[in-house]
Amino acid sequence: MDCLSPPRIVLAGLSGGAGKTICTLGLCRALARAGHGVAPFKKGPDYIDAVWLGLAAGRPATNLDPFFFDAATLRALFLERTRGLDIAVIEGNRGLFDGLDREGSCSTAALARNLEAPVVLALDCTKMTRTAAAVLQGVAGFEAGLRLAGVILNRTAGHRHREILRESIEHHTGIPVLGALPKLDPDPIPERHMGLVSNREHGGQEAILDGLARVLADNVDLERILALARSAPALPAPQAPLWPAPAPDAGVTIGYVRDAALWFYYEENLEALRRAGARLVELSLLDAASWPEIHGLYLGGGFPETLAEPLAANMAARERVRALALAGLPVYAECGGFMYLARSLRWQGRTWPMAGVFEVDTEVCSRPSGLGYVRAEVVRENPFHPLGALLPGHEFHYSRCAAPVPEGLDFALAMRRGHGMHDRHDGLVCANTFAGYAHIHALAAPWWAPRFVAAAQGWRARAQEEQA
After folding, report:
1. What would the mean pLDDT of 286-300 be, rounded to a whole number?
2. DSSP three-state, residue 257
3. Which residues participate in catalysis according to the annotation?
4. Mean pLDDT across 42-57
5. Could you tell me the pTM of the whole model?
6. Could you tell me the CA-to-CA distances from 374 to 194, 365, 379 in Å, in that order?
7. What is the 3-state secondary structure (H, E, C) of 28-74?
């Protein structure tokens, strides 16, 4: 059996906010600055961390999600994205062992075992010394098959604090201390209601990442981390191709909005559309530029609430999208894209008009309205998902459909897990437009891209008939 041996390391924490993102960003940027080809990965569905990781490493990050993919697909995607590079750096999510159930399914630890990757723990050492050794001893022995290869001490208070921590950990556990970071105040990348602030709304990201790289290079043994990554065993080569054979050119163009308001996309979703035969063109809802001829439109997630005023002010874009959708253009919208297609958006006491494709209003709340993985049954005909399919996805939204929600809405999805839009339903349908809170991944819904392209071909054919 052929085997592949990409050097790899997983950066994990005991909980969210432990400092693993700062460590991973600094490590990716420091290694890239030292001339190493870094393949960045984010465990789970997080879009924002993944974009920051891509900026830090100098190439797009890939999400590895055990909920979406079986073990073989995870490995195949990982191996494809590491080809020709020097090291893979994988950022975990939440706590190392936190998963969907008491067995920890879909946890960072489960992903590390699947990839046979050494784990480095970022440990928040605030007001803690010798207890850190007890914590690490428990982590190291909690699950069989996990290799806890080292620890980075985070938020340390000074030289004496660091020395007591290091001596206690290495004496009692034998786990190598790979470095110790000082407290960073203020936080170089502030957070808000959906996690880290978007790089598209936070200026000076290159200076921030270079600063984090200096902190890591000055306080962490990078050569030792490289050695740990290179010690990972070989993985068997995939037995089946990750992607189906590319389709011939379908003769259609699908536009996707990527601007400061909407930019949540898995790169694999865009790749799937290309492989299904579509040409893609990047669009914006925030500027006055005219659009080329398109035969389909993809509206990803993002932060339309923080840019509601310029979105509302661009009446030409709102009217264009509404007219195309009501005329039957295939439109696929996820979360923030759905909010744009609603009648209005309310946030912080103000209301802005949106495209008005659907006769519903959305409002942004102070707490999440939907958070976590979803499974939905397709219960209504639509261009994108076959009737009866069980669709895996995830939702993370502070917005909701504002009351009163109209009667008789056409929902395509019945939620078997998750919240959705209203009354455990999601996926509003109007003409050939599908809009929902659920985000999907093309490798977990392999029918989506071919059906999208087929719908675009249908639109193009009808338009040509009308012009004839």
Report:
1. 95
2. strand
3. 335
4. 94
5. 0.93
6. 18, 20, 15
7. HHHHHHCCCCEEEEEECCCCHHHHHHHHHHCCCCEEECCCCCCHHHH
Per residue in 124-175, pLDDT tens? 999 999 999 999 999 999 999 999 999 999 999 999 999 999 999 999 999 9
Return the ∠ at Cα 247 (arms to 242 and 249), rounded to 5°: 140
Task: Report the greatest alpha carbon distance in the chain.
Answer: 82
- Model pLDDT for residues 230-248, shown as the tens digit of each residue: 999 999 999 899 999 999 9
- Tell me the mean pLDDT in the region 343-365: 96
3-236 and 252-467, same CATH topology = yes
Q: Is the pLDDT at 363 greater than 90, yes or no? A: yes
DSSP secondary structure, 97-164, as one string: T--SSTT-TT-HHHHHHHHT--EEEEEE-TT-STHHHHHHHHHHHHSTT--EEEEEEEEE-SHHHHHH
**Mean pLDDT computed over every residue of the chain:** 94
Choice between 1 and 18, residue whose per-residue pLDDT is larger: 18
Give the E-state strand segments of 296-424 in sequence order: 296-299, 301-302, 331-334, 344-347, 350-353, 361-364, 370-378, 390-397, 399-401, 411-417
Q: Given a cut of 90, is residue 361 above it in pLDDT?
A: yes
Classify residue 20 by its DSSP letter: H
Structural domain boundaries of the chain? 3-236, 252-467
Tokens representing residue 400 in the block: 């909701």
Q: In this structure, what token pair is assigned to residue 77?
A: 């995607």
Token pair, residue 88, equals: 């893979």
d(CA 437, CA 421): 7
Write down the architecture of domain 3-236 according to CATH: 3-Layer(aba) Sandwich (3.40)
Residue 21, H or E segment: helix 20-33
CATH number corresponding to 252-467: 3.40.50.880
Sheet with 399-401, side-by-side order of all strands: 350-353, 344-347, 361-364, 399-401
User: What's at 104, amino acid-wise?
Assistant: G
* Region of 43 on the Ramachandran plot (φ > 0 left; ψ -120 to 50 alpha; else beta): beta
Local structure of residue 255 (DSSP, 8 states)? E
CA dist., res. 339 & res. 321, Å (int): 13
Q: What is the pLDDT of residues 107-116, one digit of tens each?
A: 999 999 999 9
Span 178-227, pLDDT tens digits: 999 998 876 676 554 444 555 455 556 899 999 999 999 999 999 999 99
Identify the residue whose tokens are 């440990």.
Answer: 123
Rounded distance between C-alpha atoms, residue 261 and residue 144, angstroms: 44
Are the beta carbons of 141 and 171 closer than 8 angstroms? no
Task: Give the pLDDT score at 467.
Answer: 82
Peptide bond preceding 304 in cis form (omega within 30 of 0): no
